């Protein structure tokens, strides 16, 4: 499997994002999340695509089906490759998103990697994380979207449940890296062994003294 490594530009300005990109030696698979999108807007996404970058837009769309469908249609016209929607939005929302997706691929976010069982219990969800992810996966597969975003702790079971899914694993860390606000982290090679098709790496690369060197370390790890 050819695993994709998406570098997350978790910064608040176009100038900061461009400074990181300049230090990545032409790596083209880039994740743009809410922080940057809400600052720089769709114009910056178009600019990145025009410069030859492949964009994973991580907006975690979650609303009534009609609203999400219209948002997905607008995002498709930007030319991005991958977009996140919240699997918790339910089958009808996921189905509406799928009907509007055009040429982009959709992946459903299961349980955020910043949440653990305690965090879920704090908002009244007592279903075990693995079971919650399984139920969400079934709804996503039924709707026809490409796959899921899940932590390394759930990805193996999800791969067995849904062999053809695109499984995106964030929360990737090396030994010794700070977890930050992540609660469920995993190493790059371990994520791939468990069944990831894509991994997302942010601060371990972008906050490094030498981002290019750290990126190359991750890519070597993925290549075996």
Task: Describe this structure as you would to a colleague.
The chain is α/β, with parallel strands linked by helices and 224 residues long. It has a single domain, classed as Aldolase class I (TIM Barrel, Alpha-Beta Barrel). Helices cover 45% and strands 17% of the residues. It is built from ten helices and eight strands. An eight-stranded parallel barrel has the order 1-2-3-4-5-6-7-8, surrounded by six helices.
Strand order of the largest sheet: 1-2-3-4-5-6-7-8
Largest sheet: 8 strands, parallel, barrel
Low-confidence stretches: none
> What is the string of SSEs from the N terminus onward?
EHEHEHEHEHHEHEHEHH
What are the defining features of this structure?
TIM Barrel, 8-stranded parallel beta barrel, alpha/beta, 8 strands, globular, single chain, 224 residues, 10 helices
């Amino acid at each position: 499997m050819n695993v994709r490594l998406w570098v997350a530009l978790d910064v608040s300005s176009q100038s900061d994002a461009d400074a990181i990109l300049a230090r990545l030696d032409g790596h083209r698979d880039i994740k743009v999340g809410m922080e940057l999108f809400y600052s720089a807007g769709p114009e910056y996404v178009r600019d990145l695509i025009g410069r030859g970058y492949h964009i994973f837009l991580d907006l975690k769309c979650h609303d009534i089906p009609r609203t999400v469908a219209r948002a997905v249609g607008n995002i498709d016209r930007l030319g991005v490759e991958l977009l996140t929607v919240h699997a918790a939005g339910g089958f009808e929302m996921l189905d509406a998103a799928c009907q509007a997706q055009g040429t982009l691929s959709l992946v459903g976010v299961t349980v955020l990697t910043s949440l653990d069982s305690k965090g879920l219990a704090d908002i009244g969800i007592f279903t075990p994380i693995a079971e919650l992810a399984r139920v969400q996966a079934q709804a996503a597969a039924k709707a026809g979207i490409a796959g899921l975003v899940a932590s390394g702790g759930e990805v193996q079971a999800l791969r067995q449940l849904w062999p053809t899914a695109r499984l995106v694993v964030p929360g990737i860390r090396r030994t010794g890296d700070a977890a930050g606000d992540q609660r469920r982290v995993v190493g790059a090679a371990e994520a791939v062994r468990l069944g990831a098709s894509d991994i997302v790496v942010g601060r371990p690369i972008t906050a490094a003294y030498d981002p290019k060197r750290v990126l190359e370390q991750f890519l070597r790890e993925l290549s075996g």
